[in-house]
Amino acid sequence: MVISDGNDGREKPLLPSENGLLSRPLEWKLSQVFGECAAGEEVQEVDIISAIEFDKSGEHLATGDRGGRLVLFERTDGRDLRSRKELEKMETSMVLRHPEYRYKTEFQSHEPEFDYLKSLEIEEKINKIRWCESTNNALFLLSTNDKTIKLWKVSERKVKKVLEMNVDSSFHFSNGNTLGQFEAHGPVGSLSNGSTSDWIGSSTVGTFMPPSNGIPSLHLPVVVSSNEFTHVAKCRRIYTHAHDYHINSISNNSDGETFISSDDLRINLWNMEVSDQSFNIVDIKPANMEDLREVITSAEFHPTHCNILAYSSSKGTIRLVDMRQSALCDRHTKLFEEPEAPKSFFTEIIASISDLKFSRDGCYMVSRDYMTVKLWDLNMGSAPVATFKVHEYLRPKLCDLYEKDAIFDKFECSLSGDGSRVATGSYSNLFRVFGTQVGSEEATTLEASRTPNRRAGHPLQNSGRNLIGFGRRTGGKGSDVDMNGGYSFSSKLLHLAWHPSANLIACAASNSLYMYYA
Amino acid sequence: MDLTIIKLYDQEDEQKIMSVVDEPLYPIAILIDELKNDDIQLRLNSIRRLSTIARALGEERTRKELIPFLSENNDDDDEVLLAMAEELGGFILYVGGIDYAHVLLPPLETLCTVEETVVREKAVESLCKIGTQMRQNALVEWFIPLIKRLGAGEWFTARVSACGLFHIAYPSAPDHLRAELRAVYKQLCHDDMPMVRRSAASNLGKFAATVEPAYLKTEIMSFFIHLTKDVQDSVRILAVEGCAALGRLLEPQDCVANIVNVIIEFAQDKSWRVRYMVANQLYDLCEAVGPEPTREELVAAYVRLLRDNEAEVRTAAAGKVTNFCKIVSLPLAVHSILPCVKELASDSSQHVRSALASVIMGMAPILGKEATIEQLLPIFLALLKDEFPDVRLNIISKLDQVNQVIGIDLLSQSLLPAIVELAEDKHWRVRLAIIEYIPLLASQLGVAFFDEKLGALCMQWLGDQVFSIREAAANNLKRLAEEFGPEWARQHIVNQVLEKINNGHYLYRMTILNAISLLAPVMGADVTKEIMLPVVINAAKDRVPNIKFNVAKVLQSLIPVVDSDVVDKIIRPCLGELSEDPDVDVRYFAAQALQSCDQNMST
């Protein structure tokens, strides 16, 4: 097993290595599980994970859920958390170590709201999370629901206690006037925000007397820090009232200063520091809504070129926009489109791109539509470089899927740090990993469960790029089985993320977070 | 010690206040304790009174206790940190004077690293304030190490702040430290983080101003050239901004050799945001560059910007057209810029036309009478017919500049329809804007033209549906009366206004009352008493209470205008009646007015 350092092959990730050897398919193993349901436990709707994102270094992972919460995880391996002895003992196994995470903190990012003007309920569900540059040991991230984007700062603070005050709180009450709620007061107070005490301000007290013997001398409050840490999440900015439709993506710019947010018809450009103003840069709303032919499904900034962004549409096209050309970017610089395919009632629906990602070097993009993952070379708009079929066995069932609305499910995709593989989700909590290098036949199917390779013998496993067959599942958990040829459309794996440098995939199956390494 | 200014809390209990005052340290103690209070308002209050706390503690304890305490206090709310950064900027006095100024650096250094930009900027500002007062050896001993620490900071926030401090310390630094400082700055210009490079770009001009000419030409220019080639648009934009400042520092020939070429390159940058910035800065740069030939080159660049593909760039360029014509020779302006102006007048973007309209009148004095009539007049006339109200308004607002050159007659034919159309625009803000310009127009067009064409409009606005328009209309009448004199006003305004008091709707009657109170001071005692006062007195019998209490208010405003016996004989009895009105508001305002009567009598 090799742990990629993220720089390996970054220059030309998609070319066969010089000696002609392809990296072998990875063997995936379970690393960690968070939030697994106990047997018989009912999954709460609010706990279902709706967004996953690693930060740039891979040191942190954030998940958002339908209840509007953000949960943060931090990497534990290779940190100074173990004793020296332990580290020494582990030294032999060091080489094999893969990233491991632990729960760091969680907080409520969004609350359900009601737009009274439009008489519209706004769900608290987190649609997207993006990490920003961290400073001063604090983490910054953007999170969005359908309408409102928030910038969060999560910092670690030592618990501080204010020890001495000039005016002891006990002096504030004349005898017999002590109210119940103040009774428990000692001179020592501690509060989580690290800068306050629980000493009750004199303004809140009805009758108080200064100490009869006066104040001998002035001194500053003595603050003592303990070794305990608390995590404080603070909302720094709220970017709101800029979207008429539901926000489907946010993406920050490499300039560290701006980010975009896109809804069905428009893309807005924001400055991180300015929350009351944004610029509309793409607007595809037709003068007459009856002429509406496509919607924006996802938008993403180029990882290094601050002026380039790409957005995908429900028609399966990707448009590249150069913000240098003009202030309004309604006209694209480059169009990425699959050559005309045979039409059927469903082709338009399944062509809709549900996710779009740049490779780390910015030379390639991957897009996910309902049936496939496509790899695009930024220099070639005429056709994708490669197309990976995710669950071709569903093709005869499209009618069924349409009736169940499952055909509108939005699966995400994620490239590995070196760009040599792409992962994406499917039904029955399955996800697939494809090799993107030329000539690679790698096409692994894994299940988000404690035994990811349980399906190794399954026909899906052997079918690579040219997979056509579909299979019938025979085993599995009872709850998974339904009437759809053994595949459960309700347990879908929509959200997953690949660690930026290591071969580690974090994926969400309902309310559980599974991590696999190779 | 000034302790009387301390805010006292919940002052219901007399005894409590007494005891607080008895104990001089008590308020200070509270103030100090509240530096750590839960309530941000109280913490903010304490921070704002830091100087009071410092005076109470004395200089030594301030240095040894308060300042270290504040240095620790860096995880508070932004508002508190911002206030702290500001207070510390003026704190030298409280720590024992210039000799101890350096003790203030540590807390400000911490504040230079927080993530909130405004706090960092304030901290840098305060550091600069302190640094300029520090002695040379103290700068070397304390300030320069601080710059180096920030410049090598782990987080970009520190490095961003560092960029803004170099110009303070550099002049005082000995040679070897100067070299070191330049090296640190170079590093910052090459930083990985665009935020840092942006800060280096925007502070380069300030730093360059302090650097010796020899290094300016070599090192600083190389930093500049490096920044101008940055891949991030946002960095290049700020590099452009610094162009003019750098240009001024250089000898003209160096400026031509280095800066002008860069600017010309920038003017063709791929990014419209960079070109936009060039369009905004080009005029300043031309000022900085002396000789004529370079101007020619820059004019060529400017002309390209006027014809840019991007409307934003054209808008920025169009807004500078008059300034530009001022600094280039007349033939060059007529030959190269004027054709562009003609194109811009029919630009597809209303914002471009609007920007052009706001400055184009200023070209008239530059071009002179003949060229204006021949070349500019058609453009003025075209813009006056623009479909976009802002364009027309912008032309009208600058009418005086043209009037001086060619007289108004040539324009008046087109002017009138434009004004009338704006006066009846369906957007009340447009109507409001044109009303604001009416006094200007009146003064330019003259009494005769005004009476004939605009007088009726001014009266019409008094009956507008929108209150703001009616209010502005009343005010407009007052300004016209001032412009043309009371005699004219008596003939052309007063009677027409007073007639409208019989309007069936009380809101319109109220407008008239308002107009009366505005006109009265201009018209003088006689006209007020003879003509206007009776109307007001009559209105006191209105059936609507709102009118009645407005009558009381108007009467109050008339008291200083008219003679005292008029007050006694006419105004006071009327107010007396109103003060017994069944409506409480009417009684209240009548009583107020009566009070003014009394005061007027006594003085």
TrEMBL record, chain A:
SMART domains: WD40 (SM00320). Keywords: Repeat, WD repeat. GO terms for molecular function: protein phosphatase regulator activity. One of its GO terms (cellular component) is protein phosphatase type 2A complex. Gene3D superfamilies: YVTN repeat-like/Quinoprotein amine dehydrogenase (2.130.10.10). It holds the Pfam family WD40. Belongs to the phosphatase 2A regulatory subunit B family. The B regulatory subunit may modulate substrate selectivity and catalytic activity, and may also direct the localization of the catalytic enzyme to a particular subcellular compartment. This is Serine/threonine-protein phosphatase 2A 55 kDa regulatory subunit B.
UniProtKB/TrEMBL annotation, chain B:
Gene3D superfamilies: Leucine-rich Repeat Variant. It comes from Ceratopteris richardii. Residues 293-368 form the Phosphatase PP2A regulatory subunit A/Splicing factor 3B subunit 1-like HEAT repeat domain. PROSITE patterns: HEAT_REPEAT (PS50077). HEAT repeats lie at residues 27-65, 104-141, 181-219, 259-297, 298-336, 337-375, 376-414, 415-453, 454-492, 532-569, 571-603. One of its GO terms (molecular function) is protein phosphatase regulator activity. Keywords: Repeat. This is Phosphatase PP2A regulatory subunit A/Splicing factor 3B subunit 1-like HEAT repeat domain-containing protein. One of its GO terms (cellular component) is protein phosphatase type 2A complex. Belongs to the phosphatase 2A regulatory subunit A family. It comes from the Eukaryota.
